[in-house]
């Protein structure tokens, strides 16, 4: 497998794996705009040259859009290999490339979000454990911070206090999200429309800066849905999923 690094110079012509439609698609344009603004913060997007979901996205933890304290670490936003590309060792290739790059930049180690059991859009815990990652912190909703140190004498990463007990004060549905996930550009307006048509209390909070994301009341900022103050899911809702949730 050959890999290519997405940069400001080639982002317009390259597909971005998690959204493969043309650049006129709102999901693609939203994600590419978000990436383009992060390159100066040290974000790396490495992907397969083949068309498909096979990529890793990482950034210095100080610039991560998550409420974590992990100075000197590299934070992995997403490591995703799916479909026919699974089972060929590509996840290991991408992780090894991240490790090599992070060591060359003098980082203390890597950190990433997961859970004890696999959750949608989060890293596979079995894979992380196999690769030497360990849990270093956990929020009340079961979201865990995993880390891979490059030496034995490094300080452990941890969640900021604002994310330890994910909860909001507002009643009804409250959604925190960023443009890091391309699906949000398409589906957040869809479920906002459903909520409005059905007189359902719904508030969407679009985190639009690193500072906002680093002080959010949730470890996961790409998509965190609350109901009557309580965290319920990080799984992106399309119309069918949202209607199913409402039925419950």
Could you describe the 3D structure shown?
With 248 residues, the protein is of the alpha+beta class. The protein folds into 2 domains: 3-161, Aminopeptidase; 163-247, Glutaredoxin (3-Layer(aba) Sandwich), CATH 3.40.30. It is 27% helix and 27% strand. It contains 7 helices and 13 strands. The protein has helices at residues 26-38, 90-104, 125-130, 161-164, 183-197, 210-214, 239-247, and strands at residues 3-6, 44-48, 54-60, 68-69, 73-81, 109-115, 134-138, 143-149, 158-159, 173-177, 202-206, 223-227, 230-233. The strands form 3 sheets. A 7-stranded mixed β-sheet has the order 1-2-3-5-6-8-7. It has a 4-stranded mixed β-sheet with strand order 11-10-12-13, with helices on one face. A two-stranded antiparallel sheet has the order 4-9. The longest helix is centred in the middle third of the chain and has 15 residues, at 90-104. It is globular, with a radius of gyration of 18 Å. The N and C termini lie far apart (44 Å).
